[in-house]
Write a structure and sequence with these properties.
The protein contains 17 helices and 2 strands. The protein is mainly α. Among the domains are: 111 residues, no CATH class; 87 residues, no CATH class. The longest helix has 16 residues.
């Protein structure tokens, strides 16, 4: 289904002839409204602790209503519309030639990269939104993928472009489907975001992972928790990849989605240790109380288990329990990398057990000043010399 069926313009119309050689730079069609978070998005007091895990969330943004947006666009003449007007013939010819070179060049080769760069350059001009519409209708899969990547910066200000990516969400080519998911979420509107959830049904794990990451980066606002309900149901009932289930647990923990607590409790019994660890950390961030198994992980020989225990206990509301469970880990020099980091994308330094344990203890001493008879349990442990 195509969403982009009507025209729209913002600001006063400017009477320019339909075949003009150049067009004024289009103004953004709308800015997303920022909404106050609802009661479904709350965090326990200890959640302010910086988690060493890769951050998945961003600024809270209320999704726009694409139906109302398109209804308001109906009176605008096509030749004045930033998306639907006809670009100048020279620009159309240049875009068609660049897309053809992308399609016929060997993927990853210098000619293919040069052609993709030309597509990006053309979309930066005054006729960018209209040329993006043209490029997103290109019949070749490589050309469409290049157009989706190049037009990604335009879709937040021109959300109707997201309608032209709907057919790519289920593309067999995982790379094209991934960028289509990102493109649809980048519109920050309700209908494109709902269509982007089709990425959860893609056979490629990378596409389903991208769907979770893109939704987390969107960070819904007041009335937009329905997408997360869809994701929670998918993760607990249908998702086969442990990495995707673990990403869901980390996302809802970092973003503070309280309705995820039942799903996280189910994930505590997951067959994957990574999923169990992320679910425990998320539950502690949401409730302030670590699950019972966390203390056992702190005493285990597993590096991943010890690190999960430190991360969870650091977000708990009991500084004394943190100190008692973690104090013995400040000499463990073993380390591992964030299992959910994307290779070559995320900055994923090695997590050392001793370093993370000491940071958690320092945090406890800062947020729960040592007073009374238990002060010796809360005081920061002395740092060992390098």
């Amino acid at each position: 289904m195509c969403l982009a069926v009507v025209a729209h313009s913002s600001g006063p119309a400017r009477a320019t002839p339909a075949g003009a050689a150049s067009s004024p730079a289009p103004a953004p069609e709308r800015k997303p409204a920022r909404g106050a978070p609802s009661l479904a998005w709350r965090l326990a007091p200890g959640v302010a602790l910086p988690d060493p895990g890769v951050r998945l969330g961003a600024t809270r943004t209320k999704l726009c209503d694409l139906g109302q947006h398109m209804l308001a666009a109906e009176p605008t003449p096509f030749h004045l519309d930033p998306v639907f007007r006809r670009p100048p013939e020279a620009a159309r010819a240049a875009m068609a030639a660049a897309l053809k070179r992308v399609e016929t060049s060997k993927p990853g080769s210098a000619p293919a990269r040069a052609a993709a760069a030309e597509v990006t350059r053309l979309l930066r001009g005054a006729d960018g939104p209209a040329l993006a519409r043209m490029a997103l209708l290109h019949p070749g899969p490589r050309g469409r993928a290049a157009a989706l990547r190049a037009a990604l910066p335009l879709v937040p200000d021109h959300p109707r472009l997201a309608g032209f990516a709907a057919g790519d969400l289920r593309a067999k080519d995982a790379a094209r489907a991934r960028v289509a998911v990102r493109f649809s979420f980048a519109a920050r509107c309700d209908t494109p975001a709902l269509y982007a959830m089709d990425g959860l049904e893609h056979p490629a794990v990378a596409v389903r992972e991208s769907t979770v990451r893109a939704l987390a980066a969107l960070t819904p606002g007041t009335d937009d928790t329905g997408l997360w309900t869809i994701l929670a149901r998918h993760v607990t009932e249908a998702e086969r990849a442990p990495r995707v289930r673990a990403l869901f647990a980390r996302a809802v923990g970092q973003l503070g989605w309280l309705p995820a607590i039942p799903a996280l409790q189910r994930l505590l019994k997951d067959e994957s240790a990574t999923v169990q660890h992320e679910a425990a950390v998320a539950l502690t961030r949401l409730t302030g109380a670590p699950p019972p198994g966390v203390l056992r992980w702190a005493r285990s020989r597993s590096v991943a288990g010890r690190l999960a225990a430190v991360r969870a206990l650091a977000a708990s509301q009991s500084a004394v329990a943190l100190r008692q469970a973690v104090a013995g880990l400040t000499k463990d020099r073993r380390a591992l990398r964030d299992p959910l980091a994307r290779a070559g994308v995320d900055r994923a330094p090695r997590w050392q057990v001793a370093t993370q344990a000491q940071r958690a203890l320092d945090w406890a001493a800062l947020t729960h000043p040592p007073t009374g008879p238990q002060a010796h349990l809360l005081a920061p442990a002395p740092r060992s010399s390098p």
